[in-house]
Amino acid sequence: MRSRAIAGTAVAAGAAVTAYAAVVERNWLALRRHDVAVLPDGAPPMRILHISDTHLTPGRHRLLSWLRSLDALEPDLVVNTGDSIAHPHAVQPFLDALGPLLDRPGVFVYGSNDLYSPRPKNPARYLWRTSSSDYRRHVPDLPWEQLGEGMEAAGWLNANNRRGRMKIGDREIEVGGVHDAHLRRDRYAQIAGPADPSADLRLGVMHSPEPAVMDRFVADGYDLLLAGHTHGGQICLPWVGTLVTNCGIDRKRARGLHHHPAEADAGRQAWLHVSAGLGTSPTAPVRLCCRPEATLLTLVPRIS
User: How many angstroms separate the Cα of 111 from the Cα of each of 20, 161, 221, 269?
Assistant: First the structure.
C-alpha cells in the first residue's frame, strides 16, 4: 500500500508539473532588460529589441497581443533571430502582431522552423543529440518567402548570409548575418571580411549560436552577436539549470548576456545575447523554469 501511495503521489506531482509547464509558464511572458557597454565613448544610448523563436501557430492570441505591445518600449532597432512561424497560416498573424514595430528599423534571419513544419518527436532525444539531422526534406513546406517579403516590405534588413549598413539617428550600424547553421544553410564566406572599424556598432545576427560561426564574427571585429534557437533549454531544473542547448553552445550560455569566446583570456571578445525565445515547438508545448521572453538591450558606451 505504501508503494502504491508513493506511486500515486509521484503521478499526481508529475501531472501537476506538466499542467503548470503547459498552461501557466508557457504563457507567462517575460521582458528581460540588459545594459551592454558596446558603443563608442560619448555615444548616446541605443535600444535594441531582440525577439526570437515565436513558433507561431493559430490561436496564440495572448502571445500576439503581448508582442504587439512591445512597441511601447520605443526601440531604436528590432532584431528577429528566427523561427517566427510553425504553421502555414501563421505569416500574416505574425506580421500583424509586429504591427507598429515594422515601422521601426529592423533586421531578421530565418530559423529552421520558418522553412519546415514541425513533426512529432521524442523530446528526450535532445539529451544525447541535436535535431540538426531532422531536416532532411529538400523542399521547404512553410511560406518562408512570404514571411521574409513581409518584413522586407516594411524596410527590415534581410541578413541571411548578407551584410548591410543601417543609419539609426546619427549612428552607423554595420550588420552581418547568416542563415541557420542548424540547417547547414550558413554561408559565412559570403559575408567574410573585417567589419568597418568606423561604424558605431558592428552587429552579428544568426539563429543558432554555433561557436564556430561566432568565432568568425569575432575574428572579423563584430562587437555584439545576437542569436536564439536554444529556447534557453525550454525545460530546466532548479539548482541545475539548462539541460540541453540543441546546438554547440555550452549550457551556461544557453540564454542571457555573455561574452564570446567565454574565456576571459581568449583575446578579443564580443558581447553575446542568446534569447530564450517566445514560443515552443507545437509538438512540445511546455516550458519549465524557463519563461518565454523578449529582451530590451540598452547599448551604452564602453567602460574606459
Answer: 28, 13, 24, 25
Q: Looking at residue 56, what DSSP letter applies?
A: B
Q: Regarding beta strands 224-227 and 201-205, do their DSSP bridges make them parallel or antiparallel, or are they unpaired?
A: parallel
pTM of the model: 0.92
Asked if 81 contacts 275 with a C-beta cutoff of 8 angstroms, the reply is: yes
Strand ranges in 59-215 using DSSP code E only, listed in sequence order: 77-80, 106-108, 157-158, 162-168, 171-177, 201-205
**Cα–Cα dist 77/49, whole Å:** 6
CA distance 59 to 73: 25
Q: How far is CA 82 from the centre of its chain?
A: 6
Beta strands in 83-161 (DSSP E): 106-108, 157-158
Question: Strands of 224-227's sheet, edge to edge?
Answer: 162-168, 171-177, 201-205, 224-227, 270-274, 256-260
User: Do 83 and 52 touch, CB atoms closer than 8 A?
Assistant: yes
Local mean pLDDT, 10-residue blocks, the chain (304 residues): 58 73 93 97 95 96 96 98 97 97 98 88 50 65 97 98 95 97 95 96 98 97 97 92 93 96 82 97 91 98 83
What sign has the CA pseudo-torsion 28, 180, 146, 105?
Answer: positive
Which residues lie below 8 Å from residue 75, measured CB to CB, with a gap of 6+?
A: 47, 48, 49, 101, 104, 296
The β-bridge partners of 256 are: 274
Query: What is the residue type of 151?
Result: M
